[in-house]
Amino acid sequence: MTVPTTDAPLLAAEDLTKVFGATQALSGASLRVYAGEVLALMGPSGSGKSTLLHCLAGIVAPDAGRVSYAGRDLFAGSDAERSALRRTDFGFVFQFGQLVPELTCLENVALPLRLAGTRRKEAARRAAALLARLEVAEVADKRPGEASGGQGQRVAVARALVTGPKVIFADEPTGALDSLNGERVMQLFVTAARETGAAVVLVTHEARVAAYSDREVVVRDGKVRAPEYAR
Ligand SMILES: Nc1ncnc2c1ncn2[C@@H]1O[C@H](COP(=O)(O)OP(=O)(O)OP(=O)(O)O)[C@@H](O)[C@H]1O
């Protein structure tokens, strides 16, 4: 897609700093994310990518600076308000799917809908449709431990998409997969996200994963480098 230049961003980080003990993880990081775009955060290990992602997602509060979502200060409200927003508007995919081992894959995907009050049958119907969309219908009744790594990541992607979030945060979503599996998961992930209009903020080391994005920015020494691209 073409990234708009004048529209207001959906999500914006302004001049974030974050210190963990003696480590300065972020030192003036600014970034804008526009509705519907797929944005890759690249950069060396320890440069602050995950910390920036966690601040954008309202999980980690910056020491200074501001994160705004849909024009509102994300950290102005209570923890409960932020948790509620994360459930309704955000989806998450991590390196190791982090599925609930006791539930079937279908139940894992249906879980965010159940937590939001959707009836069991409707939640199961939507979960099954997404598993089929991600080409893993065959693991619906299996537990995550019985699925392969690639299948598990597709289930994790389905779970992140099922509530129709506005933004999906993905931290090395294919990092544990071989390159063929990783590419297929990215292809399915990005296509499905585009179909629902979700923006994706993706942390990756790998150029071939970043190649699925609309825009790449580099995080280095706790800053988003080349701010003209960070807009
Ligand atoms: N919870 C924490 N406690 C202490 N130090 C932390 C914490 N989270 C991050 N750090 C440190 O902050 C710095 C930035 O970490 P971050 O995980 O954001 O980098 P990254 O670019 O995502 O790295 P990688 O690519 O290796 O995952 C690192 O030096 C890291 O060790």
From TrEMBL:
<dbReference type="InterPro" id="IPR003593">
    <property type="entry name" value="AAA+_ATPase"/>
</dbReference>
<dbReference type="GO" id="GO:0016887">
    <property type="term" value="F:ATP hydrolysis activity"/>
</dbReference>
<keyword id="KW-0067">ATP-binding</keyword>
<protein>
    <submittedName>
        <fullName>Putative ABC transport system ATP-binding protein</fullName>
    </submittedName>
</protein>
<dbReference type="GO" id="GO:0022857">
    <property type="term" value="F:transmembrane transporter activity"/>
</dbReference>
<keyword id="KW-0547">Nucleotide-binding</keyword>
<dbReference type="InterPro" id="IPR015854">
    <property type="entry name" value="ABC_transpr_LolD-like"/>
</dbReference>
<dbReference type="InterPro" id="IPR017911">
    <property type="entry name" value="MacB-like_ATP-bd"/>
</dbReference>
<keyword id="KW-0813">Transport</keyword>
<dbReference type="Pfam" id="PF00005">
    <property type="entry name" value="ABC_tran"/>
</dbReference>
<dbReference type="InterPro" id="IPR003439">
    <property type="entry name" value="ABC_transporter-like_ATP-bd"/>
</dbReference>
<dbReference type="GO" id="GO:0005886">
    <property type="term" value="C:plasma membrane"/>
</dbReference>
<feature type="domain" description="ABC transporter">
    <location>
        <begin position="11"/>
        <end position="230"/>
    </location>
</feature>
<dbReference type="InterPro" id="IPR027417">
    <property type="entry name" value="P-loop_NTPase"/>
</dbReference>
<dbReference type="GO" id="GO:0005524">
    <property type="term" value="F:ATP binding"/>
</dbReference>
